[in-house]
Design goal:
The complex is a heterodimer of chains A (198) and B (148).
Chain A (H helix, E strand, L loop, with lengths): L8 H12 L3 H23 L2 H18 L9 H20 L18 H9 L8 H14 L2 H12 L4 H8 L3 H18 L7
Helix pairs in contact in A: 1-2, 2-3, 2-4, 2-7, 3-4, 4-8, 7-9, 8-9
Chain B lengths: L1 H5 L4 H7 L10 H18 L3 H15 L4 H21 L28 E3 L13 E3 L13
Classes of the chains: A mainly alpha (198), B mainly alpha (148).
């Protein structure tokens, strides 16, 4: 299932109503639907697969416990993303500097991605940059960002979300989303200058 | 996607986007729901928070071990303090003042009367009793009038 998969919010509402009515199977459908997307969100924030798995389980457990209080003022999509972001940021605050990246292997399709080819061919010509080296550097650069900057980069650059969606989930203005992105990109540029496009 | 298009010029956007190829191991999402159900069942079997706190406290108390000599030391200190208190008590306690709430008006004595001692002569009624010194029904004191 693709991370950028389109999720139909109308169908979500029906599944939420069924869950609130006591049908746990409906919540299972929501878990299946949202787990790949939320996995990406949490994983790119933590750079650790095991932490992501535990956090994601906790996110769905919390959502299930409090779904009766969900009144539909926002979409389920926004609501579950807010839970995931808040829990991940709280987790990262506690984890603080104890960071042990546990990275997933990149999909082999990365090697045929024009951006990957461009990035690696523009890298320092004196050394060959492997896929894993690029992955390590990307993750190191991400971990240098503050939690607030990392979350907007994850949502916008990696998950392809709109500014308005991000603003709703984070409960900030669109202007703040844009300014955070601007500063985050500038910081990433300093960390990844060797991969900068010519 | 308009917003993404606006940042297509951003070189960092293209590079960071490559992270989307990092995926969990094959079959991870198939197992995810199973693990979710397992954890939910496990949570149901977990004791409540209050029970857990009580258990923790109980185990903590059982872990606290007082050395045997501490009991002897405590007994010696208790005996010492006890004997010090007993020895320190004055033989004739000093007059104490008490805060008394008394609704009757204070007793005031306008004029002090001298105290006189006299031997009552036995009369017919009290002939069987030995002679006694009696204070006249006047306060034998020069203290200031009582006031509460």
């Amino acid at each position: 299932m693709s991370e950028e998969q389109v999720i139909a919010p109308n169908n979500d509402q029906e599944l939420v109503s069924r869950t609130q009515g006591g049908d746990p199977g409906a919540f299972d459908e929501l878990v299946v639907r949202y787990s790949p997307r939320l996995y990406g969100l949490v994983y790119h924030m933590t750079s650790n697969h095991e932490d992501t798995n535990d956090l994601l389980q906790d996110v769905f457990a919390k959502a299930y416990r409090s779904i009766c209080n969900f009144q539909g003022k926002s979409s389920f999509y926004t609501w579950i993303h807010s839970i995931a972001v808040n829990m991940t940021i709280n987790f990262l605050k506690k984890r603080n500097r104890r960071q042990h990246p546990s990275l997933n292997d990149p999909d082999s399709r990365i090697e045929s991605d024009p951006d990957f080819i461009a990035a690696t061919s523009n890298a320092d010509a004196t050394k060959e940059v492997s896929m894993h080296e690029l992955q390590k550097k990307l993750n190191a650069a991400m971990l240098k960002l503050s939690h607030e900057h990392r979350v907007v980069v994850t949502m916008f650059d990696i998950q392809g979300m709109h500014h308005a969606e991000i603003a709703k989930i984070l409960k900030i203005s669109e202007g703040t989303v844009r300014s955070r992105l601007f500063y985050a990109h500038r910081q990433l540029q300093n960390s990844l200058h060797e991969f900068k496009k010519a | 996607m308009n917003n993404t298009m606006n940042t297509d010029k951003e070189p960092m956007h293209h590079i960071i986007r490559l992270k989307r190829y990092e995926r969990p191991p094959e079959g991870y999402f198939d197992d995810f729901l199973r693990e979710f159900h397992y954890r939910q069942r496990a949570e149901l079997l977990k004791p409540s928070l209050s029970v857990m706190i009580l258990e923790r406290l109980t185990s903590l108390m059982s872990e606290i071990r007082v050395p045997a000599m501490a009991y002897a030391g405590a007994a010696v200190v208790a005996v010492g303090v006890g004997s010090a208190i007993i020895n320190h008590q004055p033989e004739s306690p000093a007059p104490r003042s008490y805060a008394v709430s008394y609704k009757q008006p204070p007793v005031t004595i306008d004029k002090m009367q001298p105290v006189s001692l006299r031997v009552e002569t036995p009369d017919a009624a009290s002939r069987n009793f030995p002679p006694a010194f009696l204070l006249q029904a006047r306060p034998a004191t020069h203290e200031s009038p009582l006031s509460f």
